[in-house]
Design brief:
Elements: E1 2-7, H1 10-20, E2 27-32, E3 42-43, H2 51-61, E4 65-68, H3 71-75, H4 78-84, E5 89-90, H5 98-101, H6 103-112, E6 120-123, H7 126-136, E7 140-144, E8 153-156, H8 159-171, E9 182-186, E10 191-200, E11 204-206, E12 211-212, E13 215-217, E14 221-224, E15 229-232, H9 239-259, E16 265-275, E17 278-285, H10 292-299, H11 304-313, E18 327-335, E19 347-348, H12 351-355, E20 360-364, E21 367-369, E22 375-377, E23 381-389, H13 392-405, E24 411-412, H14 419-424
Parallel strand pairs: 1-2, 1-4, 2-3, 4-5
Antiparallel strand pairs: 6-9, 7-8, 7-9, 10-11, 10-16, 12-15, 13-14, 15-18, 16-17, 18-23, 18-24, 19-22, 20-23, 21-22
Helix pairs in contact: 1-10, 7-8
């Protein structure tokens, strides 16, 4: 099978790494890829949102499956265009991708189908939004309705902070079109977790559990990011909790999307808050998480490629996946200044030394090739240093040993990834 992976981040490197190990993959490309992905797939200079360029490449090269990594091309309808051109594609249609493309749509959908989530309101008028905030009090959560690269969520501790977030989005246009409407919702207390399921329009197959670390600083401090690290499995998502999530959240979503004429195919990522009242849905993503994908793929014992094909073809009902018992921890190394302004172009050394540590894989998220084989930083989140271990604590120790082997003065990382699981043990 000739496969094209669309995207160029850490998630796409993990997907390429897994697909490259499949005996079914005879040719593997990645568009646009990055300096690390080039070791596992042939990188082609086509942007992930260049739908016409991707369609032309598939026609010219006889691509037999396209795996779409990022959310933006999914929301823009890349899968619809590929399927219309006769190219099989893994990922949801544009109609189904609204679950991530519009937080307002997602919240209304949950209300229609009795899926547990936070109470909320939708606003395009700043004064009305502020009145809602004043009536409900703080803490409260202000979200840009559309795609904002993981940065459009403000957890406000004061009314002034919430009002400022409303002004930034609705009046100052901080997130452009994504912030033309805001969703304001109650703050939920508890522990966050990431739940993934493959879906084929009718059947949902749960994947291994994971937990992300959104805040930039140790101790879950500072602004939200796209994710500073992850680990798998997440102890809070034990078998009983996973069954509850499937019954109350995931299956009603698959059934509801089918009933509303937008069957969901692809991977469904439920961001959860697990508190005293059980699991509640914070948000849906319509693709693998980043960096959660970097801990799921090393733990996957089964061949990924047939699973992706089964989801696309609608035959997951009799499908099964197996996982290694080992735990995985991914530590994200980011450019200093992230998630604010950061410099690009600094050289990263020591990658081979880090990868030589047993159980370690260094996934590239925001890298680009430099002169004479050098690897340069080219983004905010740059590396996903991932390690396996018999326990989460052992995987964490190996991951940070690998981080310390990397010579990159222009980068930083959190030093407490997986702290919840380690504390439990």
């Amino acid at each position: 099978m000739k496969v094209l992976v669309v995207g160029g981040g850490g998630r796409e490197h993990a997907l390429c790494w897994a697909i490259a190990g499949s005996p079914l993959a005879t040719r593997l490309w990645c568009a646009p890829g990055n300096a690390g992905i080039a070791a596992d797939a042939e990188c082609v200079a086509i942007a992930a949102d260049d739908i016409e360029g991707i369609l032309a490449f598939c026609a010219e090269n006889g691509v037999e499956l396209v795996v779409v990594g990022p959310e933006a091309p999914l929301v823009a309808g890349l899968v619809d265009r590929l399927e219309a051109a006769g190219v099989p594609a893994f990922g949801p249609s544009a109609a189904a991708a609204r679950l991530e493309g519009s937080k307002g749509f997602m919240k209304d959908f949950c209300a229609r189908h009795a899926i547990p989530t936070a109470a909320y309101g939708r606003f395009t008028d700043a004064a009305e939004a502020k009145a809602f905030i004043a009536a409900h009090g703080v803490p409260i959560v202000v979200k840009a309705d559309g795609l904002a690269a993981g940065k459009g969520v403000i957890i406000a501790a004061t009314v002034a902070e919430a009002d400022a977030a409303v002004d930034d989005m609705l009046r100052a246009g901080l997130f452009g079109d994504a912030g033309r409407e805001v969703v304001i919702e109650e703050f939920l207390a508890g522990e966050e977790a990431s739940f993934f399921a493959l879906a084929d329009g009718e059947t949902a197959l749960p994947l291994a559990s994971a937990q992300d670390h959104k805040r930039v600083g140790d101790g879950d401090t500072g602004p939200n990011t796209g994710g500073m690290g992850a680990y798998s499995p997440a102890p809070i998502l034990d078998e009983a909790m996973a069954d509850e999530v499937m019954a109350r959240i995931v299956r009603p979503t698959i059934d509801g999307m089918k009933a509303e004429g937008a069957p969901y195919k692809g991977v469904l990522y439920a961001g959860l808050m697990i508190g005293e009242g059980g699991p509640k849905l914070l948000e849906y993503n319509v693709r693998f998480g980043d960096p959660e994908c970097q801990v799921l793929m090393p733990r996957l014992k089964s061949d990924l490629l047939p699973a992706l094909v089964a989801a696309r073809d609608g035959v997951l009902r009799n499908f099964d996946l197996r996982w290694w018992d080992e735990a995985a921890v991914c530590v994200v190394m980011a450019a200093k200044g992230y998630p604010g302004a950061y410099e690009k172009g600094s050289e990263i050394r020591g990658l081979a030394d880090a990868a030589a540590i047993p159980g370690v894989t260094v996934f590239h998220a925001g890298t680009k090739p430099g002169a004479n084989g050098a690897v340069l930083a080219g983004g905010g989140r740059v590396l996903g240093v991932t390690a396996l271990g018999e326990t989460v604590a052992e995987a964490q120790k190996r991951a940070y040993e690998a981080v310390d082997a990397i010579d990159w003065p222009g980068g930083f990382c959190r030093r407490d990834i997986a702290w919840r699981a380690v504390a439990r043990s």
